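Minutes, project huddle
Topic: does the predicted pose make sense with iron/sulfur cluster bound?
PN asked that the exact inputs be recorded in the minutes so nobody has to dig through chat later. Recorded below.
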Amino acid sequence: MNGLDAIQRSVTDYQTLSAEELYARTVEAKRELGDRVMVLGHNYQRDEVIEHADFQGDSLLLAKLAAEHAERPYVIFCGVHFMAETADILSRSNQTVILPDMAAGCSMADMAAIEQVDECWEALARILPVEETVTPAVYVNSAAVLKAFCGEHEGITCTSSNARAVMEWAWARREKILFFPDEHLGRNIANKMGLPREQMVVWDPFQPNGGNSVEAIRKARLLLWKGHCSVHQMFQPAHVDYFRKQYPDVKIIVHPECHEEVVSRADLVGSTEFIIRTVAAAPPGTMWAVGTELNLVNRLKRKQPDKRVFFLSSTVCQCATMFRIDAPHLCWAMENLAEGHVVNHILVPDDEKVWAKLALDRMMAVS
Ligand code: 13P
Ligand code: SF4
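Predicted holo structure (tokens), as shared on screen:
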């Protein structure tokens, strides 16, 4: 370590360092920490971050890894805030989770606040016996307090890889599902399961009764929170049509956060891990247009040179919050840790943790 304690420097001091220096210092600090640290990297992270990751994966895989590696007391989570919270909830009490930049949030997660979900639940309770008829199911792209809400109300969490199994579980128990905060993931899975359109309603948290009539709510089997991913909403049906026309042999593979009109035109739909594994396993010479975040697609292009990999949109769709985790932030967090200082500690309050863990454990049991 050179000179000053890392804690005495601001993270901005790291921003002027060269890529080579950042790389070397991060490697050195990680080497000093040895088995005490584990770096987890989401599939959307930049290369300069992923090269330091012990494990790379989608939300579900990373959540499982955090829980499985209790022997590593420090987890540096290179992803977004909700993922680091999930790792904290699932990890053991001897483990500390660090998010290199606290501003790495998720715009979709911000589309459902606990006050709004409480109001929705109360509104539903005025219309029907909500605790007996509705299972709340929250996408992991959400604050810990919403996962806790689900734990407390016999509900469950899901990820993009297990949403179908979760919805099957929920419908086997109760008549209706309140699915939040991503309307697209919920609708895409319900479409696959054959749920008729008239049994789905959208719940707009800014409208009385979510913008629905009492009759529509009574009839609905799926209440979809009006929320979306600002990255995946950029993919349009016209992009799929363009690639099909231009390259008749192309396979279209997209993330289920995309609009249903994109998903229904695609050949394959799945989580970030599913997308990577599917393209990696495809025969050489095959052509793929991929509808998910740009860093993932660019890495796929480089790692699969024997295939043609295209980004599905004509405009840049990058997750601006994932992008906040960069080499300077990672180096800053790692050097601090090596010097005995924990920065950006993610700590879910104990009362939330208990309920949120229950909802996550239910998900783990069905996936
Ligand atoms: P995955 O669980 O598929 O990695 O997706 C997480 C995410 O945030 C996608 O936008
Ligand atoms: Fe959130 Fe979308 Fe970024 Fe995923 S890609 S972390 S859903 S904003």
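Observations noted during the meeting:
- Residues 64 and 364 are 8 Å apart (CA to CA).
- The chain is about 45% helix and 15% strand.
No decisions taken; revisit at the next huddle.
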